[in-house]
Design goal:
The protein contains nine helices and nine strands. It has 241 residues and is an alpha/beta fold. It has a single domain, classed as 3-Layer(aba) Sandwich (Rossmann fold). The strands form two sheets. The chain has a seven-stranded parallel beta sheet, with helices on both faces. It has a two-stranded parallel ribbon with strand order 7-8. Helix 1 packs across helix 7. The longest helix has 21 residues. Pfam families: adh_short.
Amino acid sequence: MIVLGSTSEVAQAFVEKALQEGEKFERIYLFTSNKETTERFARHIDVKFLQQSEVIELDLMKEIDYNKFDYINSNVLFCAVGYLGEGTEEGLYDNKNTERIININYSKLIPVMNYFAHKFENRRSGTIIGLSSVAGDRGRQSNFIYGSAKAAFTAYLSGLRNYLFSKKVHVLTVKPGFMATKMTEGLPLNPKLTATPKQAAACIYKAFKKQKNVAYVLPVWSIIMMIIRNIPEFIFKKLKL
């Protein structure tokens, strides 16, 4: 299995869930921008599950030498790359903040996704799982830069699913709502609408095994976002969401 964004609590919880369920991986490739933290997780799954892994440093903000990844073959790709950024008004007009949100969540990520998607296509098998966000379902004033990047990523996954279907490769889009992770620490999240990484992992694993196309981590979010998507624009623009 290939894991992009392997410092993510959701990514790590999914890896553990898959191993607990008896999934067998010759090797797990843990791509990360924080090698030290990821190496601790690699040691953890080695001790707990006797699972071999390899930690690979990947910084999306730097030039990537794809030749280094030629040897990597896998049947599952799990992408949990994400960067929330600063959502305040000051952050909105901070171009460095804006560029980082767009680059990490979309523009610098897609070439990496495409590189591995091509390998899956050539092998004509496998599953690609991408963590997008409910924030991409409709632009809202509270986080529309992040939401726009996730909307682009959702559209990318949808098109990739359509393209790879005839090549026997499945693409699953996951849309978490509020998540209790380091990225959202300190935010005033409604506990009834917030999932833990373990809850998310269980939902994603179930969707993975059922080969679902789109999965909301908590079912209530599919209802919430359906309502939000269908609010008429002349009303929606006046709301503070």
